[in-house]
Automatic annotation (TrEMBL):
Protein's membrane topology: Multi-pass membrane protein
Family: Belongs to the PIGG/PIGN/PIGO family. PIGO subfamily.
Keywords: Endoplasmic reticulum, Glycoprotein, GPI-anchor biosynthesis, Membrane, Transferase, Transmembrane, Transmembrane helix
Listed Pfam families: Phosphodiest
Protein name stated in the entry: Phosphatidylinositol glycan, class O
Chief localisation class: endoplasmic reticulum
Classification via CDD domains: GPI_EPT_3
Length: 492
């Protein structure tokens, strides 16, 4: 009799442990399924009609006014025309916002001053530059940050284990779009665009074979403060001599990626406040200033993004979710010949909108927002699973009609992804509320298009539609964060 009770007792505890393990894994080990689908170059009209419900006549009007690119015309972009001739991405690993604001006077600080002129005595337009807080999702480790910055997705717990070993990105990304889409659809002279890279070898682990020119350096020796940075400086100016220009007829480099590691390694070794960090930031300031000076002398439109993939704590580490770790810097610089970007700071004054929409001023930008912005800037489709929101303030030459169209395409892309994911992977809750917000934005967009056709452009009408698309996009990101990045302790 006693052995039977003991057996029941053991079975009870085994079942309880199994239930506890299930509860723990279901609520703590967040998981997201990767979808194999990729955005295509010819689906802008399909997204607007089938996902947002615009009429064929409205889409044809957008194409005839050259707001949308059309397969039936000679194109300079997939969904929309490209805005720049080339893109330069300069990653300064662990560049906190305060580092950029206070410790880069020649590269960042000098260009933020309104009196800064590219060439003294020149009548050329000034270069455009802005500094933002660049907010990352935890975990704040390099591999997860680079995945997010190229796919527009959110990391999950399981991604942390992949940080110590190369994990190729299989999801759709703007990197994949650059190298696979026929370049002639985007105004290039070659079938395949070329990208160049130098720096942290994590990029080669994530995107093997993507770069036409590649100079990777090992990244795990945090005591080595200079090898990667010296390698970057050795190759960057040679690559800049082959950057794509407006007059390029050869296969020049359309995208250049440079990943400096010294600031991060100094932080790990000595912390953020010491003479080693002062020296490294001074070195970075001089290097970045020379790169920007070189780009400013060009007669073509180049956009440069200088940013940290994450920040660092006061003891020099990162990986968690504190403000010091998640708030990096983003410095955006467009060369002098690029057009002026839209004055989106006027949105609050022009239209009465909620506090949520004040993000349109973009003093703070979510890192994955860079993905849709890069895609639209280079004339690419937005990656299929992207959750980031297009940032008009980062795009040279953007006007209100094109910006609203870009936000509409962005909203359609995310809404399609949510519905496909919910139907084929895991059901997402909260889609009904999002559908109502999307319908409001689309109705306002239709009103703006109708008013534009009948009485001429109404900036206020387009801004109102844009603000509601921004609300929808923000709510989409919040849903994604609830599902994939916030631990559910109650298994709700």
């Amino acid at each position: 009799m006693g052995s039977r009770k003991r057996r029941y007792y053991d079975i009870f505890w085994i079942c309880l442990c199994l239930f506890g393990l299930y509860w723990f894994t279901a609520s703590f080990f967040l998981a997201k399924r990767s979808l194999a689908e990729r955005s295509s170059c010819d689906e802008a009209a399909t997204l607007l009609t089938e996902v947002l419900g615009l009429t064929l006549e409205e889409v044809r009007d957008l194409e005839s006014s050259q707001i949308l690119s059309s397969p039936s015309q000679e194109r300079n972009g997939c969904w929309m025309d490209r805005k720049i001739d080339s893109l330069v991405i300069l990653v300064v690993d662990a560049l906190r916002f305060d580092f950029a604001y206070y410790n880069l006077p020649n590269s960042v600080g000098r260009r933020l001053k309104p009196e800064h002129e590219v060439r003294e005595g020149s009548n050329r337009t000034q270069a455009k530059a802005r500094l933002f807080q660049f907010v990352a999702d935890p975990p704040t480790v390099t591999m997860q940050r680079l995945k997010a910055l190229t796919t527009g997705g959110l990391p999950t717990f399981a991604d942390i284990s992949a940080n110590m070993g190369g994990a190729t990105v299989e999801e759709d990304s703007w990197m994949h779009q650059v190298v696979t889409i026929d370049g002639r659809n985007r105004g290039l002279s070659a079938h395949r665009a070329r990208m160049g890279f130098v720096g942290d070898d994590t990029w080669e682990d994530l995107f093997p074979g993507f770069f036409a020119e590649s100079y990777p350096y090992p990244s795990f020796n945090t005591r080595d403060l200079d090898t990667v940075d010296n390698g970057c400086l050795k190759h960057i100016f040679n690559m800049l001599s082959r950057i794509r220009t407006r007059a390029s007829v050869t296969e020049d480099l359309e995208v250049i990626v440079v990943h400096f590691l010294g600031v991060d390694h100094v932080g790990h070794t000595y912390g953020p406040h010491n003479q080693h960090m002062d020296a490294k930031l001074k070195e970075m300031d001089g290097a970045l200033s020379k790169i920007l000076d070189r780009l400013d002398k060009s007669d073509s439109c180049h956009t440069t993004f200088i940013f940290g993939d994450h920040g660092m704590t006061e003891d020099g580490n990162h990986g968690g979710g504190t403000a010091e770790e998640t708030h990096a810097a983003l410095f955006v610089h467009s060369s002098p010949v690029c057009g002026e970007s839209a004055e989106w700071d006027q949105l609050e004054e022009t239209v009465s909108v909620s506090e949520l929409v004040k993000e349109a001023q973009f003093s703070s930008i979510h890192q994955i927002d860079l993905v849709s912005t890069i895609s639209m800037t280079l004339g690419l489709p937005i990656p299929y699973a992207n959750l980031g929101s297009f940032v008009p303030a980062l795009v040279p030459g953007e006007d209100v009609r094109r910006t609203t169209a870009a936000l509409a395409l962005n909203a359609a892309q995310i809404w399609r992804y949510f519905n496909v994911y919910s139907a084929t992977a895991n059901r997402l809750s909260g889609l009904d509320d999002l559908a109502l917000k999307l319908k409001t934005a689309v109705d306002l967009y239709k009103d703006a298009l109708r008013e534009d056709k009948e009485a001429g452009i109404s900036v206020e009408a387009y801004l109102r539609a844009s603000s509601h698309f921004k609300v929808f996009l923000r709510e989409c990101l919040d849903l994604g964060q609830r599902v994939w990045t916030r631990f559910d302790t109650l298994l709700a």
